[in-house]
UniProtKB/TrEMBL annotation, chains A, B, C, D:
This is N-acetyl-gamma-glutamyl-phosphate reductase. The keyword Cytoplasm applies. It is found in: Cytoplasm. Residues 3-143 form the Semialdehyde dehydrogenase NAD-binding domain. It catalyses: N-acetyl-L-glutamate 5-semialdehyde + phosphate + NADP(+) = N-acetyl-L-glutamyl 5-phosphate + NADPH + H(+).
Length: 345, 345, 345, 345
C-alpha cells in the first residue's frame, strides 16, 4: 500500500485528487492538508464525500511532522507556496508530485520573470521532471520530484508536439486559442468567479501574458529543437470543467490531413489516455476522465493545420495526471485508479 | 461472467447502463440494441466511448435470436414497447430488468388508465418485483423479472417511506414537489428539449397527471397499509442530471426533527446507497453516483415535516439501480460495479 | 424631470434599477452610491453600461449632502442598513423607495425576531406602504415611503392573494415551494455563490426559517382576514434570473379550475403586469420584464389547487417594481419606463 | 407608420425581429409568416408575447397576396428559400431585408459553390446591398434590397476591417477563432441542439468549410483592396446568445497597441453601436443589445495583434441589424427602436 497525502486538498484540483486516491486500490490517504479548513472534516467541505472519506484536514505545520509516515506527497498550492515543503519532503525520502507551477520551468530566471516571485531552490529544478507522461515516461519512472503540468499546457502540448517534433509547421506560425471551464479559476472568492458573472457569457483573458505561455513554449521548443514563441489566448466558458485547445500552424509543405493523422497515431500509439479521433473533439467526451482527445483538420485553401485537443482540466490537466505520474513512479500500471470513462451527459 | 445485453442502449438511460456494465468486473456486454441506430457502432453515437466499447448496435429482431446467449436482459424502452421481448426473454430463461414502466404498477387496470395502453401480459405482473432494493431486497434476490422504478418515484418513495411506515403523518397531507434535470426528458427530438428552450428557465409540467404519481401512491400505500392519494408536481431545471424531491407532510403528533432523523437512520441502516445527511441535500453531491441523500426538517410553527431527497436520475433513478438489482439477482455484492462517488463540481 | 438617486447601486438589484432609470423618459439619475466602489465609474463595475452611463459612484456620506437635489431616493441595501438615510431623506422631503427589508413588516417586534436587529425607527412603520402595486395601488399614490416587497414574497403573494381573499382554501394548508435563480443571492463573495458550486445542481435552503416567510404571512393574513401560518421553502436553481413559486392549497369546497381562473382574471383585471395564463408559467417568459405570469391547476383527486407564478426576481421582484411604485407616486403611467417584454431565449 | 412583415417569424432570429418591431414606435407589424405554425397564434409559439402580440401566423402563399399592404418585408429563411418572395416583393415596390444568405455573396458562382444551390436570380445581386451599416451606410439608405450579414461575419468583419483597410497586417496571416451561443443553430430539431448534448461542453465545428467564410473574405478583401483567404473556426458554447470572435493577424510593422486603438476609435467614430473598449469584451456586455464591443491587444513578443469583438448573434448578428438597416432605408434615426442596453446578468 502506498501511503499518500495531499496538501491543498480543499481546492478544486486537490479535492479531485482525493477522489482518485480514495478510489485507488493501492493507495491509502494518510492525511489531507488545508490552510482554510484545518481541523474540519474534509467531507464537511465537500459533502459528496460524506460517509466515505473520514479524514479531518490538518494544517501544514502538522503535516511536516507526519512526512515520515508517507511515501508520496501531492501538493496543490498556488505558485510560490510549495518551496519549503517540497524541500523537507524530499529530505525525508518522500516522493513529491507538485501540481503547482514552482518546478515546471527549467530556468529560475524565466520563472521569476513570469511569476514575479523569487525561486527559493533553483538547484532542485535539475531534479524535477516535467510530468507529462506521454513525453517523459522514462524520466518519470526514475525521479523523486514531479512538476505536474498546467491544465492549458497539457492540452496545448499534446495537441502540437508531433507537428513540431516532425518539423511540419512554420515555427513562428503557432496560435493556441484555448477555452476553459470555470473550475480552472479555482475556489478562491473573486467577483469574476461568481455564478452571475460567468454564466451565459464568454470572454478572453490574460492575452499575451498568461503564465502557461512560457511552459508551453519550453516544451514545444524541446520538441522542435529550437526556440519557439507563440500566441496563447485563454477564454472562460460557462461550464464547470473542460479545456478545448484550438491550435493553428502553417504547414511547411504539402501534406494531407490523412498523413498527419497517421503521424499522430504513430506518435501516440503507446499512450492509453490519448485518443486520436476522426470527429472534432468535444470536452464532454473526456469530462470526468483522464483522456485527451485530439482531432486534426487541414485547410487546403490556407495551408494551415488545425489541431484540436480536449481534456478535463481537473483530471488530465491536474489530478488524474498526478496519479498517472504516481503510478509510474511506484511501478504500477499507468492507468491504475484513473481508468474512468466520461459519462456522456 | 454474467452475459448481459441492453435494449434501448442509445437512449440516455440505456447508454448510462452501458457505462456501468462496461466497468462491471463480472459482466460482459453481449450485445446492445438500438432501433434508431441499428448497424452503427455504439461509440459513433456516443463518442465518449470511442476506443473502449466496440459493440455495434443491432436491431430488436436480431436481438431475439441472441437471447440464448445471455443471462440478463436490460430493457430501456418507452412504455408499451417491452411486452413481447420480456415474454420471449423469460421464456428462454433470461432474467429481465425492465427500466420502463410496463411492469411497475401491480394492477393492469391502473396501468391502462394512466398510460392509455392495453397491458398485453397482465399475468406477468405477479412475477414482477418492484426493483427498489431498499424496500424489496429479499424479493429481488429471488425473482426473474424486475420492474425498475422510475426516477421521480425512486426519489419520492425513499424520502417518504419511513414516515408512512411509522404512521407519522396525515395520509392526505402529502405533497411532493420534485425538480429534475433535462436528461429526464430523454433524447427524443422535441422543441421543449432544445438547449435554447430549457436553459435559463424553470417550469412545472404534468401537474396532477404525471405518470409517476400512481407508482408513488402504490408503494407508499403499501408502506402505510392504506390507500393514499397525494400531489406530485414535477419541474424541469436547467441542468443535465439530478432529481431533488421536496416532500411535505403534516405530522400527526409532536415529534422532534431529531427523533425523525433517528427513525430514518434506523430504517436505512443496512442500505449502502442511502445517506441520511444533516445538511440539506444538493443534487451535485450524488451526481454520477448511485447514492440517495436524504435530509429532514421539521417546521414547528406549522407542524409539518419536510423531507428532501436527491438522486442522479440516470443512475439511482435508472441505470445504477438496474445494476444494483442485477447484483442481487446474481448473488453479487450489492455495490459491485456501481460504487462510484460523485465528483464535487 | 424627476431627479432620482440609487443607494446600493452596484448590487444586482441596484444596477438593475440604474438600467431602468437610465431608460426612463422622465427620470434623471442625479447620483449613484456604492460603499464598495466609491469614486469609481459605475460603468467600470458593470461594463455593459460603458459609454452610456457616466456617473461615478459616491459614498453615502457624500450622498447625504445631496439629498436636497433629488425628488426620489431608491435604497438597495442589506437589512438594518437603511434606517438613518431613510429618516434623513424623508426629513428633506425626498420620497423614499426602500428595496430592503427594514420597513416591510408592520410590527417592529416581528422584524426584530426574524432579522435579529433592533428597529431604529418603529414610528416610521406607520408611514410605510407595502409597495405591491396590485394590492396597494391607492395607498402607494399618496405615500412618501415605500417598502418595496421581497422577490419571493412578490411571487408568492400575487399567486395566492385571490384564493385567500375569496376564502377558497383551508388556512392551514398553504405550502409555497419556490425556486430562484442565483442572482437572488446577490453579488457578495460567498463560496456558495461561486459558479462551480451552483452550476449543475439544485438545493433547498433556509427551510422553516427564511425571512420572507413573515412578510408573506403578513400580507396573506390581511387578504384572508385572519392570521395565517404557512410553509415557505426556497430553492436555488442554476440560472441567473427568475423565480417560480409553486403554491399549494386545499380547497374548502368543490370549485372548478375554470371558475378559479375566472376569479383570478377578475381580480387582476386592471393590472397591466399580471398575466393569467392557460399554460404553465416558465420563468423565461417573464425574464427581463416586470411581468408576473400566473397559471392555475386543480387536482380533483386530492382537492388541491396549485397556483404557479413566475417573475424576474431582479425586476418585478425588485427594481421594476420599485419603478412601478415611483411612477404611481409621481402621477405617471404605471408602466412608464418598465414596459419591456421578455426575450424568448 | 411603416407597415412591415416578417417571414420565418417563428425561428429564433425571426421572433427576435418581431420583438423589436413590436417595440418600434414607427412600425406596425402587418403580418407574420411561419411555415411550421401557420394559423396558430404567434404568442402560442412564444409565450413571452402572450397578451402583447395578437398576430396569427399565416403561410407564405397568403403572404404573397398581402405584399401590397406593406412597405418592408423581413425574411428570415434558410438559404435557398427566399428567391421567389424577394422577387415578388420587389416587383410590388416593397423594400426587402433578407436575413438569409441568398444575396450576401456578390458572385453567384461563389454562392453556388459554398451553398450547393443554384442562384435563381443572379441579376438581383447587383441591386443587393450588404447590410453592414458601419461600412455601407450610404448605399443602404438608397437601396431596396438588403442582404443582412450573417452573425459570425458581422463580428468578424467589424473586428478586422480597420486593420485591413489601413494595411496593418499580413494578408495571409488572418485567423478568426469564433465562439457562438447555441441559438445560432436555430430552432430546428437536431440531436446536436438538445440541452443534454450542448450543456457543459464546448466543441469546434465546420472547420475549413463554414459558409460564413466566403462572406468574411469578400468583405475583408474589399477592405484590403486585394483578395484575402483566411481561417475561420466556429465553436459552440453552452449559452443561449452571443458571439465572441478572437481575431489574429501578424503586424507588418511596429505599431503600438495604443496607436491601433486610436485608429479604431477614429474609424468607428460615427458609429453609435460600436464600442471600442479598453477591457476585453465579454458577450454578456452586449447580450440583448445591438452593440458590438471591440477590444485590442498587441503581443510584442510575436508581433501579432489580437482583436476581439463581441455581439449578440440574434441582434447585431441578425434582427437588430435588420432594424438598423430599415431605419436607414426609411430615413429614421439609426438607433430608433433598437436602443436597448444589455442587462448585466
Amino acid at each position: 500500500m502506498i501511503k499518500g497525502a495531499v496538501i491543498g486538498a480543499t481546492g478544486y484540483a486537490g479535492q479531485q485528487l482525493v477522489w482518485f486516491l480514495h478510489n485507488h486500490e493501492y493507495v491509502k490517504i494518510e492525511f489531507v492538508v488545508s490552510h482554510s479548513y484545518a481541523d474540519e472534516a474534509f467531507s464537511k467541505i465537500y459533502n459528496n464525500y460524506t460517509g466515505f472519506i473520514q479524514n479531518k484536514c490538518i494544517n501544514i505545520q502538522q503535516a511536516e511532522y507526519k512526512l515520515e509516515e508517507i511515501d508520496v506527497l501531492f501538493i496543490a498550492l498556488p505558485h510560490g507556496k510549495s518551496f519549503d515543503i517540497v524541500k523537507k519532503a524530499l529530505a525525508k525520502g518522500v516522493k513529491v508530485i507538485d501540481l503547482g507551477a514552482d518546478f515546471r520551468l527549467n530556468e529560475a530566471a524565466c520563472y521569476e520573470k513570469w511569476y514575479g516571485v523569487e525561486h527559493k531552490f533553483p538547484e532542485l529544478l535539475n531534479d524535477a521532471v516535467y510530468g507529462l507522461v506521454e513525453i517523459y515516461r522514462d524520466e518519470i519512472k526514475k525521479t523523486r520530484l514531479i512538476a505536474n503540468p498546467g491544465c492549458y499546457t497539457t492540452a496545448s502540448i499534446l495537441a502540437l508536439y508531433p507537428l513540431l517534433n516532425k518539423g511540419l509547421i512554420e515555427m513562428d506560425s503557432i496560435i493556441i486559442d484555448a477555452k476553459s471551464g470555470v473550475s480552472g479559476a479555482g475556489r478562491g472568492l473573486k467577483v469574476t468567479s461568481l455564478y452571475g458573472e460567468c454564466n451565459e457569457s464568454i470572454k478572453a483573458y490574460g492575452i499575451a501574458g498568461h503564465r502557461h505561455t512560457p511552459e508551453i513554449e519550453q516544451e514545444l521548443s524541446k520538441a522542435a529543437g529550437e526556440k519557439i514563441l507563440l500566441n496563447f489566448t485563454p477564454h472562460l466558458v460557462p461550464m464547470n470543467r473542460g479545456i478545448l485547445a484550438t491550435c493553428y500552424g502553417k504547414l511547411k509543405n504539402n501534406i494531407s490531413q490523412e498523413e498527419i493523422y497517421k503521424i499522430y497515431k504513430e506518435f501516440y500509439k503507446e499512450d492509453y489516455f490519448i485518443r486520436i479521433v476522426e470527429t472534432l473533439p468535444e470536452t464532454r467526451n473526456v469530462r470526468g476522465s483522464n483522456l485527451c482527445d485530439i482531432g486534426i483538420r487541414v485547410d487546403e485553401r490556407t495551408k494551415r493545420v488545425i489541431v484540436i485537443s480536449a481534456i478535463d482540466n481537473l483530471i488530465k490537466g491536474a489530478a488524474g495526471q498526478a496519479v498517472q505520474n504516481m503510478n509510474l513512479m511506484f511501478g504500477l500500471e499507468e492507468s491504475e485508479g484513473i481508468n474512468v470513462l466520461s459519462m456522456a451527459i
